[in-house]
Task: structure prediction
Amino acid sequence: VFQKWVNREISNFDYLIQLNTMAGRTYNDLAQYPVFPWILRDYTSEELDLNNPAVFRDLSKPIGVVNEKNAKTVKEKYENFEDPLGMIDKFHYGTHYSNAAGVMHYLIRVEPFTTLHIQLQSGRFDCADRQFHSIPATWQALMDNPNDVKELIPEFFYFPEFLENQNGFNLGQLQMSKEVVNDVVLPKWAHSPEDFIYKHRKALESEYVSAHLHEWIDLIFGYKQRGPAAVEALNVFYYCTYEGAVDLDALTDEKERKALEGMINNFGQTPCQL
Result:
């Protein structure tokens, strides 16, 4: 697969899907859903210029520190972390770039995810301000908050319907602006959900992304996923998100085991290292 990708016989999209599959990710498990990168940083221009490197996200950095401002906070958190019991390793992020709640967050307008979201929120929609209501606002929140580290899901590159409230769900209204949450607000350069998907996919297959995608792959699937390289890259997540970090079979206490299983399922899981 790698050789084919290098020779440009398969697209960036196909390569990412295949890597996800090899690393144990699947559409059938929300806790191990395929993970895709944020690739753009320009969600405000009238036109999207894919020949300008400045419109792209820095793919060599975890999303939590793409904004330089957050790097210091994230570093300090890691350096100052002490677990009195000595069980929990130091980490940069207590949340994860891919978890079940994040998948439901993005896909809330589409069944079965709507129903799953409502079940997760004890029978109702979460408050409107926490809903996925705007792509520019979601990016801005990532830039402002080092605790929000959600990457994307493959749907952002092929599935315009998830951006529309075709089922007419009542998702509430935003507290400050009183704006009703309906279809997802798109970047200015996208004239419709279809146009967004078309341009976003074009961005994924652009020259810039083709040249830098391997840097992100190293962080998510490769050698910067764990160990000293991960520490240096500010890419260490909470210990139980890693494959093999917890031996569930060794836990004899049923309650403890259930609690840990729940934690792993909700927290997110790092893909198998390739």
Observations:
- Residues 1-273 form a domain with the Neurobeachin; Chain: A, domain 1 fold (CATH 1.10.1540.10).
- The radius of gyration is 19 Å.
- The chain has ten helices and no strands.
